[in-house]
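User: Show me a protein chain along with its predicted structure.
Assistant: Here is one chain, sequence first, then C-alpha cells.
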Amino acid sequence: MSAVELPTQLNIDERFLGARIAEGQGDREALRLDTGSLTYGEVDDLVRRYGNAFRSLGVLPEQRVLVALRDGADYVGALFGILRIGAVAVMVNPDLPLEQMRSMVERSRAASAVVHADRVGLMEEAVAAAGWPTRLLVAGGEAEGHPALGDLDTSGPCERFPTHRDDPAIWLFSGGTTGLPKAVPQTHRSFANTTALYTAAVGYRPDDVTMAVPKLYFGYATGANLFFPFSVGATSVLFPERPTPDVLCDKIERHRPTILVHVPSAINQMLGHPKADTADLSSLRFVTSAGEALPESLYHAWKDRFGVEILDGLGTAEMWHIFVTNVPGDVRPGTLGKPVPGFDVRVRDDEGNDLPDGEVGRLWVRGDSRGLGYWQDLDATAEAFRGEWVVTGDLVSRDPDGYFVHRGRADDAVKVKGKWFRPQELESCLLEHPSVAEAAAVPIEDEAGLLRPVAFVVAKEDVTEAELKQFVLERLEPYKHPRRVVFVDSMPLTHLGKIDRGALRRLV
C-alpha cells in the first residue's frame, strides 16, 4: 500500500480547479451543458463569485453550507466556492421531502444553504422547523426575502483559505438501505488521495468527456463526474433532469461522452428500453458501475448489446469513493475487481481474523481516504472505524486470483431455516428471468415469527407469482425460495437512489 504524497496545506479547490488555471488550461472546456459550455476559466470566475457571496452572507471557515441544487453550473460554482473559503459543503438531494430536509439542516447546523428558487418554500419550512439561523442563497431565479447571486457584491478576488489537508471538506452520507443515513465528514486529503489513485487505475484522460446517471450530491458522482475529470483537465457533462432511459440515450447521442458513470438499476432499465436497439453509444470507452452489486448476467447483456465494458467496483461514504474495481482490459464479470493500488482490502471474520479465499466475511479497508467518523454517533464510529481500518457493512469473498465478489450487506444477511440467506442471491436469480425488469428481496417475519424471503418485482411483461417461484426453485436451494412475490410498479428509493428495503418491508 503506497500513499499519495500531499502537502500539509491543501485545498481541493486549488488542486482540482486552481491548478488547471495555473497550468494555462483556462480556455479548455470544463462543463458541457444543454445550454452551452463553460471553460475552466469561466468556472473559476463563477466559483470566485460564489465564494464572495457566501462570505457576504457571513459564512466563516469550517462552517457548514448546505448544497441543495440540481446538477448544473451553479452546483459546481457553489461547491468549489464553499471549499475556496474554507467552509464545509453538505451535499444533499435537492428533492428531499420536508422532514428529511429538516433533519439535514438540524444535524449540519448549516450557516447557509444554496437552493433553487422553486424549492425555497420547502427550505424555509425546513429551516424554521430545525430552529437554526440558516441564511438562504437562491440559484436559478429569484425568491422574495432571499438574495440571489446577482443581488450580492461578488466583485473582487476571492482568496483561497489555507485549509489543512485533514480539515473537513465535504459531508457525505452513508448509502444504507434502511434508517436515517449517517453523516461522514470527509477531508481534503481524502478527496485528493482517491482522485489520484482511481484516475490512474482506470485511466482518465484529458480528452475524456464524462457523464453520470447519479447526481452530484452522491459522492460516487462527485468524484467520477466532477473531481476526476477536473483533475486531468477533462470535460464533465451535467444535466438537471431525472436520468430516465429516454433522457440518457438522448444525452449520450448529443454530448458523446467517453466515460458513462452508471448504476445497476439504470443499466437494467436502459437495456429494457425500446431505444436500446438503436441508441448510439459508440463514443464510450468504458462504463463504471457502483452503488449496488452488478449481476454477471446484466454485465453480459450490456456488453453483448453495446460492446462496451462495465467496470464494476465498490466504495463507501466512509472511504469516499471506489477502492476495489475492475479496470479496462481486466474485467472479470460478476466480481468487483481488485483493490485500487494504494488501498489495502481484506476479508475478515467478526473477530477481525483474515479469512481464506472463497470464504465470506466483512470487507475491511485502509488507506488515506478514511473519513473522520460518523457525525454525532460515537458508538457507530467505534464499530466501523478501528484504528487505520474501516469495517464496512459489505459481505465479500475473494477468489484465488485476487478478485473480490460481493455477497450482500451484513445487515441484510439473516438465518432462514438455520442457514444464511443473502438477498442478493435471490435478486440476481430473478433478474435472469426475461419478464423481470427489477427485483429486490427482503427477509420478513411470517405468522410464526420466523424470517422468510419475500421478493418484490417490477415486471417487463405479464408473469405470474407461480412462474417466478418455480423459476427460482429450479436454480436455488429451497430455503432461498421466496415465500411471496409482490409485484410493484416501481421500487422505493433512498436519498442516494438505492432500493429502500425498509419501505419494501412496510408494503407487506
